[in-house]
Amino acid sequence: MVKEALVNQLDSFVDRPIIPLFHVIFKGLGIGLSSGYLWKKQRKFASTHLRYFGEGQKSLEKYIEVECNFLSEAFKEEQGRPFNPHYTLTNAVSNIVCSVVFGHRFEYSDPSYRRILELDNEAVVLAGSLRTQLYDVFPGLMKHLPGPHQTVHANYRQIVAFLRKEIEKHQEEWNPEDPRDYIDAYLAEMEKKKEDPQAGFNTDTLLICILDLIEAGTESAATTLRWALVFMMNYPEIQEKVQAEIDRVIGQSRQPTMADRPNLPYTDAVIHETQRYGNIVPMGFPKMASKDSTLGGFFIPKLAEIYGNIFTVRLGKDTFVILCGHKMMKEALVTQAENFVDRPHSSIAGRCYAEPGAGLFMSNGDKWKKQRRFALSTLRNFGLGKSMLEQSICEEIRHLQEEIEREKGGSQLIDPAGLFNSAVSNIVCQLVMGKRFDYSDYNFQIMLKYISESFWLQGSIWGQLYEAFPKVMDYLPGPHNKIFTYFSAIQTFLAEEIEKHKKDLDPSNPRDYIDTFLIEMKNHKDSDLGFTETNLALCSTDLFLAGTETTATTLLWALVFLIQHPEIQEMVHTEIDTVIGRTRLPSMADRINLPYTDAVIHEIQRFGNILPINGLRMAHKDTTLGGCFIPKGTAVMPILTSVLFDKTEWETPDTFNPGHFLDASGKFVKREAFLPFSSGKRVCLGEGLAKMELFLFLVGLLQKFSFSAPEGVELSAEGITGVTRVPAPFKVCARAR
Ligand code: HEM
After folding, report:
1. Is 587 left (phi over 0), alpha (psi -120 to 50) or beta?
2. What is the atom index within ligand 1 of the atom nearest the CA of 372?
3. What is the pTM of this model?
4. Is the Cβ–Cβ distance between 635 and 657 less than 8 Å?
5. I need a labelling partner for 82 at 20 to 30 A (CA). Which of 101, 251, 434, 695 fits?
6. For the chain, how many helices (H) and strands (E)?
7. What is one Gene Ontology biological process annotated in the Swiss-Prot or TrEMBL record (predicted)?
């Protein structure tokens, strides 16, 4: 996996993320924590010049030979008594880098350099502690609080002041004709690179570069040598064999050289094993995905190419079994439907849903079965499959068309996200609350904003931190708290609607889901199947949330893809003109006569891939899947990306190609691996509704408008992934046809 990320995908994972603790001092400069162009230039300069002043020339070996003498003398002075070798060793190792960078070494007895080494060692140790890592999560807050992070910053400031003096001395004595060391060479490069400020050759970057070189060149090698001492003491027989080999090959009188290495295979093996077993940088340094290679989105399916279609991933304290590819998904969600029907515990849901096991999305067992069946039949009664719902959607299309006309004004530009959210949400509001909201309704708009933001927050690092450390996060400030504030505001919004419904409820004439539920409650006074008022608010919230974000996001992707492929948009226009014309509104009966448009809508859903990791599932009992034993209670992640982009199912998986859904004669064809709504017993409850909305809204919009990007703007298909994968915010030009 490490090879896959760092070697095979080296371009995707070359950058460093911003680590707030270090950013205060390093500011993205230098070599170790920089990214992009600056990193490339600084790294290239450093590797070339380290080679020039050391490697490849005799001088580095000479420096080390001299230092070895000093070190042996210092050890001898202890006369076999126990002593702490820490700082003598560290100073010796550090002197090698100092010779290359500053052109001189420091005496072991020099108190000022000893102090720098102590400060650095303390900073490195503290930086890895749990309390200091809190700084990375809450930098804004922690910078005002006492704690080890303050020591880390204070230590680095003293080290930086020390290094700045070295640079100033070099600047005073600088002779461009005779560069003595790394700093001199860098000063010359600063003169040369004046025209290229992005490369970052200035004294601030120099300072951080030498901090990087000194720190990395000191701590790491010195720590490895300390481990070597530990292992030699713990394994005296190995120490003896190394000594025997050295005695035989080099003897006691002359110093070693690199040319001796091939003749010391046992010693060489011991050094390698010391590095492996010492494991001094256990976590590596964090790398940042510079392209969209998200775990759930596209990276995990890549892993499937190496590990097969079923494997385990640990995220924090949680373990997930990952399922990839259409065949594995079918085996789990359809063939073994009963075994994988439940959802695992989620700390976020646990806090949101006041009643345990409430709602539609997260509930399990009999309660879920009953509530799902009730919701489906109620939605059917109020419209699905009936012209009533089609009429509501068509009425909403008229409102949407008017809003687009109003918003675009002279510039022709509209911001589609808010409009689509309002229009789509109004359909589910009709079904659940029996009413639609005006697009200018303040409260409604606030709810829509809360929905989008909480979907994003739940999938963000904040949501993930909450899932991993709920007890700690409960007490900490941060954006994760908004998830709960928003959820409870949405729930209150629905609870108020329920109160209103209770006042004018006519049991013989239910108007919507809320009315039907209130009536049903009377038949379930003694059951625990979730027919309570709290659960009504929670189920309504689920329908409102799931019914808004998903379909609106798919419509946004539709605009992105149709604008990126104007020839496809034109073919859809032509088909609609031929079959429906431009005056009457579309109906579901038209779908069969619009095979190309239908194929385009399916391809938008496939390529849009709006729920990349699907809903989580849990093994209901011990079972076997793909030959692997899955114990009861294991969380399972059926990755939808891996089905919608399955190389064995789609002719051109990585291309937007409506041809995936058309046969040679242009007829629409269904595809088994088309699973944006997932599959099995927990398949999306709103699939029928969503399909109807997507068809009617898209055809209604394309009948009236041609869409394009504003002059000079290229829309991106990269997407921002929270729980859903949404396009980055964009504006479009809507021209009336
Ligand atoms: C393009 C639009 C939509 C897409 C792509 C979509 C996709 C999904 C997916 C992938 C799941 C998880 C299924 C699983 O765990 O296997 C789901 C669940 C669900 N969806 Fe949708 N959905 C969409 C629209 C809607 C709409 C309009 C509604 C409103 C009625 C809705 C209501 C639900 C509910 C209530 C669940 C939970 C079902 C359960 O756990 O039993 N969805 N959806």
Report:
1. beta
2. 41
3. 0.67
4. no
5. 251
6. 29, 11
7. xenobiotic metabolic process
